[in-house]
Amino acid sequence: MSAAPLVGYSSSGSEDEAEAGARVRPGTRGCSRGQSPLPSQKLPVPDSVLDMFPGTEERPADDSAKHGGRVRTFPHERGNWATHVYVPYEAREEFLDLLDVLLPHAQTYVPRLVRMEAFHLSLSQSVVLRHHWILPFVQALKDRVASFQRTFVGLEVTSGHTQFLDLVSEVDRVMEEFDLTTFYQDPSFHISLAWCVGDAHLQLEGQCLRELQEIVGEFEDSQTLLRAHAEQIRCKSGNKFFSMPLK
Predict the structure, then answer these.
(1) Is there a catalytic annotation at residue 229?
(2) DSSP at 131
(3) What confidence category does residue 36 fall into, taking pLDDT thresholds of 50, 70 and 90?
(4) Is residue 141 within 8 Å of 178, Cβ to Cβ?
(5) Catalytic residue among 67, 76, 105, 120
(6) What is the pLDDT of residue 225?
(7) What Å distances lie between residue 189 and 18, 80, 142, 205, CA to CA?
(8) Which of 105, 190, 201, 229 is catalytic?
(9) What is the pLDDT of residue 51?
(10) Catalytic residues per the record (predicted)?
(11) End-to-end Cα, the chain, rounded Å
């Protein structure tokens, strides 16, 4: 496989919407007569009471500053779990060395670019599952991908593209079973290296991508470096992870 092409693209949402932490409701301390109550504090409502009146819970404000400026494409809602299916990529030291060269060069064009904390290749969009659907959904995925062989990926897939299309087809069939959004038509499979808030597609394409591609092509052993075994498929639903090994 030749050194994988670099691509710049924009997205309307964040794949890591699937991140979920403990939901915090505003609390309060009692105040004595004559004292002014704190403006944003309220008594918390017990879960047992909220469960009696579904749909009446106050939703916490989604502060994008806590997510590096990223904005969720759908809000938090009690009982809903953001879910994403992907192939994880375990970055070796040589890969990170290459990224240490690529990112500063790209930041000369788009200074707000931020390095990804983890690397993966998406097989689905981020979708919403009800909690009681999670285990049946994961089992359906396991049944669909049980017979797939491992293959190779690069920054943008230049070999194994057909196998990944087959994988997406099986994941899409599970999505359809649960009446969820399927993957993109004619997808380009890639591993994201960095991200930024806003659409910087025009700043990255052209001269910037050509220069970055030259860096990749000249990097020692780049053809071997940018190959990796896809050994498993992973599903992240809220804060839960499920792995499905590939043969």
Answers:
(1) no
(2) G
(3) very low
(4) no
(5) 120
(6) 72
(7) 19, 27, 21, 18
(8) 190
(9) 54
(10) 120 (proton donor/acceptor), 190 (proton donor/acceptor)
(11) 21
